[in-house]
Amino acid sequence: MTRALFVLKLRLLRNGPHNERGFSLVTGMALAALVVVGAAVANRGLLHEGWIAVALTGWGGMWLFGPLTQPRHDPSVISRDWLRGYPLRPWRAARALSWTELLGVGPLVTLTCLSSLVVLAAPGGLTAATIGAVAMVAQLYLLVWAGKTVAVIAAWLLQTRAGMRLAATQTAVMLALSFAGWVPIAAWLLPRLGQNDTTLVLPTFGQLPAPIIDVLALLPTGWGYRAAIAARDNAGTEAVVVPLMALLALGALLHMGWTTLTARALRRPPRLVTPRRPHAPDRGLSLPFTTPQVSAVVSRELATWSRDPARGVELRSAWLTPLLMALIIGVTDWSWALPLVGSAAAVFGAMVAVNTYALDGTALWQLLTTPGALQADVRGRMAAWFLLFGVPSIVLAAVLWAVTRSPLGVVAVSGAIAAAAVACAVAPLIALLMPAVGTDARDRRYPGQRAGDPTGGQMTIFPVVLLGAILPGIIGATAGGHLWAPVLAAILLAAVSLSLTPTLTARLLQRRGASLLDVMVSSDAALLHRPTTRAP
After folding, report:
1. CA-CA distance, 487 to 412, in Å (whole number)?
2. Is 525 strand, coil or helix?
3. What pTM was computed for the model?
């Protein structure tokens, strides 16, 4: 059975989509090559070998915390749901499936990175190089099963309400570190940039303190490094065997734990769909300057964002990420940049709203069969997004400007207004152009289920909203630094976006609504791009 699953995974890897996998392979190989080259340079004394321990620790951290960045995304190529209906013992199926997890881009790239252990141990002779190769394989075994076990535990937690909050928090932490983690380093290199002083403080990569290296070598991610260095320096049999045995023992324990959790999941039948809360009629929301139809759509959207498990996680992470970014920036000397977090909040709000039509699923038929509902639906989704994300982003930029008295306050608030308007207008349009279909809304009970992978839509709307955020600042700089220029640019951009895009989105929904519903029913996004034939 293991051989059959290996063949199946190889065929899926060969015939499946290659865009994201190819990008990950090229990027990962480039980073791994830098670590290997660093190890070769360290052998010549041009770089302290402790930096290799730092690189390996960071690489291991990506295996441990990487699954937490996308807790709703199943990285396995072979889904365990495919094996649920087969007449096989769950333990046997899980054990056979476990070995296929070693085949993929991640283990290949990590193996290349860990070959730096062989390079470090090579000056000690053939025996030391052989021990370095054993340490490389043992370290890979531990990292792979540590990452797979974390992913399984995260998927299990997402089936609980506490897990939803945990998923939103961990996603927000990872996004905040990804988008603002560079700020402390930049503030260290350019500490007086806020005073228009571009004096660069150059860092020196000297020898790391011995206590730091000892701590890194004591971590599980440093056991392979510890064994390779001990073999090179002839530190004795115990110094080599103990970390190697620890790697194999902990890896086997995690391997067994993953197999047990997977067998338990295969043994458990799918649960019936039950509502999270009893249905109760809500009083309609009355909004000024809108029709009752638009107000009804706004009420529906606000309720959906709070009740749908997939949207609920996105909502919490989009609110929490800017606050964590402000915390990271606030502890540095770049507090003048805090008002810019308001524009970042609008960007994150846009990224979590690019798949709303696909998340609604086959309920789209109600919208298509109600006369005159398309225009109201588009405008209602835009108004609901503005209430949930647009207003908080603008208020956040204004509050941080008042607290920090930053010279970029006017530009930051203008950028937040422009970004909020562009995101409000473009998000429904991207949701129609690039739907990511997953589990239908009526069958979705917890955010761990496949609700679609909107990465393409998010990567599309990100530069669009980011351009809208920086455009007022660029116009203000070209206008001689006058304060009225970015404000006027933001107002004009908002007016154009909010007046033209809703009509275009409604016409697109009217023309492609039937095809979009077919996509929801069949889960085949290719149907959306096939030409439709009209009856004569």
Report:
1. 10
2. helix
3. 0.69
